[in-house]
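Problem 12. The chain below contains 235 residues. Write out its predicted structure in token notation.
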Amino acid sequence: PRPLQLRTLVSFLCFLLVFFFFITAMSFEVQPRAYSKLLSHSAKFFADQCNGVLLGRRTEDDRVVVQDAMPLFHTHLTLAPMLEAALIQLDVHCNGNKPADGQRLSIVGYYHAYKANGVTTMDDTVTRIASKIQSEVKQALCLVIDNSKVNAKTIAAEPAVAAYGPTADGKWRRLTIVSAHDGQGGVCVLGERSRVAAAAAISSQAYEQLCDFESHLDNPKLDWFNSQFDNALRS
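Solution.
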């Protein structure tokens, strides 16, 4: 019995090591449309906090690619019923819109901008919402926007966000942001194309066209899926 218990314990420890390596080695990539949209949300409501969710997909080489961002709120950030309503609508939208490659987008993370400039840590509210999303998707990214850097010149030159990824023990750790993916795990890729696109959206004031879910609730005619904004980014 004792050797069997030892083998069981060793197998369990090996499983934990593999799981820990897998979850901390996951890398993320933030593409231009997503980065432009989340920074534009912060720019439009620069006097308030704002938040939203990240949409994307998982690649065959176990990277999470963030392709879009959906702006949610700029005042009532913590009202659970409103958040649930937004996520239900978003789920319907994702399931009803099939991209050309046939792979639907899904929620892969959360973003948040504080009212105070320069704050890039995860407070209790941010941690709670990000962890809720993490519990559903297993590999989530959390981006905290640095409002002091939301201007075209700075955005083009350096990251205007802090990136966080989940750890095996349910906590969050800050990720290194790199310009290109070189096979290294546990990083967040934020390339030059994303920075340039976001800087252009800010300098052209395209963010004035942006609508979040909260604004849509106030005026249902407003498109919080932001087709007009997306078209402006393509032009």
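Discussion. The longest helix spans residues 2-25. Students who got a different answer should revisit the alignment rule from Section 12.3.
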